[in-house]
Amino acid sequence: MNEQNMFNKNERTALVSLLIEMVNADHEVVFEELIQTNHINTRFGITSDDFVTGKALDPIYALYIVKNMTDDQKRLIAQLLVEVIDADGIDSDEEISLLNFICDATGLTPLFP
Question: Given a cut of 60, is residue 1 above it in pLDDT?
Fold first, then answer.
């Protein structure tokens, strides 16, 4: 399946919401994380409207949306979040905790127990 067709509009907005949460998890937004997030947005066809909606979306509701996705979609979102974590070369405890929380809340096994 084409990456730009992996997620519907609601799923794309949930992805944006979680990407923003991850970028802010360690309270240090760095250039490399923004570049990675922009790359993900381009890869998955996230429009400016998707971004604005995702930015305003309650992260708890975003988790609800992700929880109802397929396991393949959930794993992909977890992988994308790891890409953001790795972007600056520093895996903070806050980022790992958030990733594990997202995995647990959406039915995936935490990646870093």
Answer: no
